[in-house]
Design goal:
2 domains; 25 strands; five-stranded antiparallel sheet; Tachylectin-2, Chain A; alpha+beta; 397 residues
Length: 397
């Protein structure tokens, strides 16, 4: 009966604005709390897919999947993913409370090279500087949550970088729950300094929860609009109806009431009958992370959407732990504690090493983090409740 109900659930149509075609899944890989963007990372002239993920253990952090495009910009074809690397290790950011990694590839410091940028917990912006060989260096951490907003913007924040005031540096669009803020960069590209947030949007009545937001000229009138994703999976467009002077920075009073582009998605928690059941949604769920771009290079803007959902085995069907299972978990916990001490010692030893020794240590750190993560999953893992995510493409008609 439950499988039949899930099948019926998937048959519910995706109600989208007349401008959009029903969504297409871009890759088959399960990507918990997917946050997509596009960039040519290997210099072959074709844009690749980069997806930020939620952390699945305390050791590896929130990381980025890189799907190389073996097709063309007009017709992308993605192969198996790799972890995106930075300074000889997996690029990662600290994560807390569903923040996950939210990648953007921009020239943050105006040196002519694309940088990998993502938010993280505690109001920090992580900038992985682009290097001349096309790789990324160790991250520089910048604080964007200052003053009375420091605690409010510590976690569960989605960031979007754009030049809000036209002064040549990257400002921030910060989204958390019922508010979208602009955080101006009052410094420069090389010496950024973020000021106090300015409210750009709060929903009428406060009943909607925002999960991400971007600026884009959705209607092609030369002015930046606001496009927001919501926790229920819907996506809305706030048109900029300000004055014709396109040099005026986007402000709250310029935005028209929301126009829905995508209706709410499927439930974010799906009940399944067993751990082996493979439920594959055919439409987005909630907590959507959005990117607006001309994905298929046909001259108009499309939506790239990452979602987040979870599956849970019904309580009556959850497997009971045997005595042997309990003993294995105890052994795994003891191993995790031992490996964690080794990891802490090795991390302290990296500082001050020359480049050759540091490269060796970084490989050792990666290996040890992986062992810690495996031990943690063996000790704490719960296959009855798992996180999921998908990347979807909404084509503009």
């Amino acid at each position: 009966m439950k499988i039949a109900l899930l099948s019926l659930l998937c048959m519910i149509p995706v109600f989208v604005h007349a401008e959009l075609v029903d969504p297409v899944r871009l890759v088959d890989e399960d990507l918990p709390h997917a946050a997509p963007t596009m960039a040519d990372l290997d210099g072959d002239g074709v844009r690749d897919l980069v997806v930020g993920l939620y952390r699945d253990d305390p050791y590896t952090g929130a990381r980025f999947k890189w799907f190389r495009n073996r097709g063309s910009n007009q017709l992308p074809v993605y192969r198996a993913s790799d972890w995106l690397r930075a300074d000889g290790s997996d690029a990662r950011v600290d994560e807390f409370c569903f923040t996950g990694a939210g990648p953007q590839i921009v020239d943050f410091d105006s040196d002519g090279l694309p940088d990998l940028v993502s938010g993280s917990k505690d109001g920090r912006l992580n900038v992985f500087p682009g290097l001349v060989d096309g790789s990324f260096g160790s991250p520089v951490q910048l604080t964007y949550a200052v003053g009375p907003f420091a605690n409010r913007l510590r976690h569960n924040v989605r960031l979007f970088l754009f030049d809000w005031d036209g002064d040549g540096d990257q400002d921030l669009l910060a989204t958390r729950m019922t508010t979208v803020w602009i955080i101006p960069n009052e410094g420069s590209p090389r010496q950024p300094r973020f000021g106090l947030p300015v409210v750009l949007m709060t929903p009428a009545g406060g009943e909607e929860s925002f999960s991400s937001s971007v600026t884009a000229d959705w209607d092609g009138d030369g002015r930046s609009d606001l496009v927001v994703g919501r926790w229920d999976g819907s996506i809305a467009w706030y048109r900029n109806i300000g004055e014709d002077d396109t040099d005026v920075p986007l402000q709250r009073q310029m935005l028209a009431p929301a126009k829905e582009l995508v209706a709410p998605g499927m439930p974010r928690l799906i009940q399944i009958d067993s751990e082996q059941e493979d439920f594959r949604p055919d439409r987005p769920a909630g907590h959507v992370r959005i990117a607006v771009m001309d994905y298929d290079m046909d001259g108009d803007l499309d939506l790239l959407v990452g979602d987040a959902w979870a599956s849970q085995v019904s309580k009556s069907n959850q497997a009971k732990l045997s005595d042997a299972d309990v003993e294995r978990r105890r052994d795994a916990l003891a191993l995790e504690r031992e490996l964690s001490r080794d990891l802490d010692h090795l991390q302290r030893s990296v500082d001050g090493e020359d480049d050759e020794v540091k490269a060796i240590r970084m490989k050792e750190l990666d290996h040890l983090r992986s062992r810690c993560a495996l031990a943690w999953r063996a000790a704490h893992g719960n296959r009855s409740h798992r996180r999921h995510g998908t990347v979807w493409f909404f084509e503009r008609r």
